[in-house]
């Protein structure tokens, strides 16, 4: 029990602060001077879920078009570079409580099958935990692992392997 509480405290301390609306547990957008243009103070585009009835998931130029979180070699920590991507999907899921996702953890082809399945699971769980901390309901998010069995790139060079070290956000 104490380990779970300690882990939650560490994850919370390492993530960027997100203000939540007390009534809905949804992130509140910071209304600073820079946010008038559709970006938050860090330059992250905000999700507009009211695009005249259009589903923002189908907009190839929208912020939700990016659905892969990439990881460093042998790591399952969500880097600062990909936190805005996870935050945008969390905002969308918070605004659309009927939507569900599966986060698919993947690895490169280095290492054994069992190790890669475990690492892929840790990657998908890291993204899932971050979304839950951002207010997404636990029943909206499932984390699975494919290990090295679902490569995005079939090459064996460093850039191909880097492309396979990821967690994909798949809407259902």
UniProtKB/TrEMBL annotation:
Pfam families the UniProt entry points to: OmpA
Keyword list, A-Z: Cell cycle, Cell division, Cell outer membrane, Lipoprotein, Membrane
GO terms under biological process: cell division
Region of interest (Disordered), residue spans: 21-45, 145-172
Taxonomy, superkingdom: Bacteria
GO cellular component, one term: cell outer membrane
Keyword Lipoprotein: yes
The OmpA-like domain, residue ranges: 58-172
Gene3D superfamilies in UniProt: OmpA-like domain (3.30.1330.60)
Presence of keyword Cell cycle: yes
InterPro entries associated with the record: Bact_OuterMem_StrucFunc, OMP_bac, OmpA-like, OmpA-like_sf, Pal_lipo_C
Major subcellular location class: membrane
Entry's localization field: Cell outer membrane
Compositionally biased tracts (Basic and acidic residues): 158-172
PANTHER family in UniProt: LIPOPROTEIN YIAD-RELATED (PTHR30329:SF21), STATOR ELEMENT OF FLAGELLAR MOTOR COMPLEX (PTHR30329)
Protein name, as recorded: Peptidoglycan-associated lipoprotein
């Amino acid at each position: 029990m104490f380990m779970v509480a300690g882990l939650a405290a560490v994850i919370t301390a390492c993530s960027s602060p997100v203000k939540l609306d007390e009534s809905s547990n949804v992130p509140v957008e910071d209304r600073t001077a820079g946010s008038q243009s559709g970006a938050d103070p860090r330059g992250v585009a905000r999700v507009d879920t009211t695009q005249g009835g259009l589903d923002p998931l189908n907009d190839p130029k929208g912020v939700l078009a990016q659905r892969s979180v990439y990881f460093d070699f042998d790591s399952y920590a969500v880097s600062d570079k990909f936190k805005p991507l996870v935050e945008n999907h969390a905002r969308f899921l918070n605004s659309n409580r009927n939507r569900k996702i599966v986060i698919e953890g993947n690895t490169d082809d280095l290492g054994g099958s069992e190790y890669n399945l475990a690492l892929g699971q840790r990657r998908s769980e890291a993204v899932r935990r971050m979304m839950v901390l951002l207010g997404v309901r636990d029943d909206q998010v499932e984390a699975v692992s494919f290990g090295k069995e679902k490569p995005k790139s079939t090459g064996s060079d460093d850039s191909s392997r880097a492309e396979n070290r990821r967690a994909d956000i798949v809407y259902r």
